[in-house]
Design brief:
Blueprint (H helix, E strand, L loop, with lengths): L3 H19 L15 H7 L6 E6 L15 E9 L2 E8 L2 E8 L11 H12 L7 E4 L5 H11 L11 E3 L2 H9 L1 H13 L5 E11 L2 E10 L10
Parallel strand pairs: 4-5
Antiparallel strand pairs: 1-2, 2-3, 3-4, 5-8, 6-7, 7-8
Length: 227
């Protein structure tokens, strides 16, 4: 169960990650650029190749009202030892359907954020990426933040609907486990100070809870990331 102290710590840690992303002079950032392509990642960790193919994605891949129905996406499913990473990708977004990695496998398996970056970059240019979507939020930290602390403050949000989180709520999500993966993806993929997470959108549908993280170029509103 997520406590008030936990939530306050998530807000603090998420705000720190946001500053690391937006300000290259913010001290204390220990996340280095992720430079290994997929082939090197496989060799370094002695991993089997991921299963990748073109497939039809779900109707609402990143937004409950906009997802193109029946469009072909690059699908991937990577299982190695106790790690699993699966999802869809296209030229401007990455949708993560499954991400699982044991906490005690730091030296045996690559970070999930590096797995996501390497898979996306194998097929598409990073500069095209606008959305990172997490389907089916089940992690206890992130789901606990949403259910216990964020959604009760928005009683008008329907059971099947969407909510754009404010800055403090977004920081709490970035401080939780799923938000940490997204923040580390951005820190590993781009030079610090050149991107920011513009907004985090939560929505519920008949399948469960989902999050969309929208990025944008700093100082260039006409070239927006994660619109």
């Amino acid at each position: 169960m997520i406590s008030y102290k936990d939530y306050a710590n998530f807000e603090k840690e998420g705000a720190q990650r946001r500053r690391w992303i937006e300000n290259p002079n913010e001290p204390g950032c220990y996340i280095s650029r992720a430079t290994m392509p997929l082939s090197d990642l496989m060799d370094t960790y002695e991993m089997n190749a991921p299963a990748c193919h073109r497939a039809k994605g779900p109707k609402a891949l990143f937004d409950p009202s906009e997802g193109p129905e029946g469009q072909l996406y690059q699908a991937f499913n990577w299982a190695h030892k106790d790690m699993r990473f699966a999802g869809y990708a296209e030229h401007n977004y990455l949708a993560i359907a499954v991400m699982r990695k044991p906490a005690d496998s730091y030296y045996e398996l690559p970070p999930i954020s590096e797995v996501a970056k390497a898979l996306y970059e194998k097929y598409f240019a990073l500069d095209e990426l606008q959305y990172i979507v997490v389907k089916m939020v089940v992690n206890y930290e992130t789901k606990g933040c949403l259910e216990k602390f964020i959604l009760p403050n928005h009683p008008a949000v329907p059971h099947l609907g969407s909510l754009t989180l404010n800055e403090l709520e977004s920081d709490a999500i970035l401080g939780s486990r799923i938000g940490k993966v997204v923040a580390y993806f951005v820190l590993g993929a781009f030079e610090r100070g050149t991107r920011r997470i513009e907004r985090i959108v939560f929505w519920r549908d008949s399948e469960g809870h989902h999050l969309s993280n929208d990025e944008e170029h700093l100082g260039r509103m006409e070239n927006r990331w994660f619109h």
